[in-house]
Amino acid sequence: MTGHFAKSNVPPVRMIKEVAIEAVKPVDGEGAVAVKAGDRVLVDIFNDEKSLTSLAPLKGRGFAGVIRRHGFGGGPKSHGHMFQVQGSIGASSFPSRVFPGQRCRATWGMPRSTVRNLRIRGIDFGRQPHYGRRRSSRPA
Q1: How does pLDDT run across 23-67, given as a tens digit for each residue?
Q2: Burial 58-67 (b: 16+ CB within 10 A, else e)
Q3: 45 exposed, middle or buried (CB, 10 Å; 0-12, 13-18, 19+)?
Q4: Does the pTM of the predicted model rise above 0.90?
């Protein structure tokens, strides 16, 4: 990482994020000011904005069956039955395939989700970002 910081001619920092910025406020009637690698991007870029789009990671739940993933009722729960199995999901001769969108067991959860048009209600300029674990306020 030292080489990356040296190439951009910036001091090392603890946290690096990639932020897509279309344009910054024009200066003295000129066009948009370009943002270079290594520039600090703070929350004041959201002053004139009314809404934004956010990409956030979702909670992954691993490989899940149909009862946990889709809420299926299951089969009989006694006399040696396997009650958490799905059963047949496709026909045998025709159409000899499983239709797209069939609800079946698989990995539950997505890697990330996009939420569009989040309204910005206010910006707290005095609050510092927090990195790492929060410490308890209780005495040890």
Answers
A1: 655 555 565 666 777 777 777 777 778 888 888 888 888 899 888
A2: eeeeeeebbe
A3: middle
A4: no
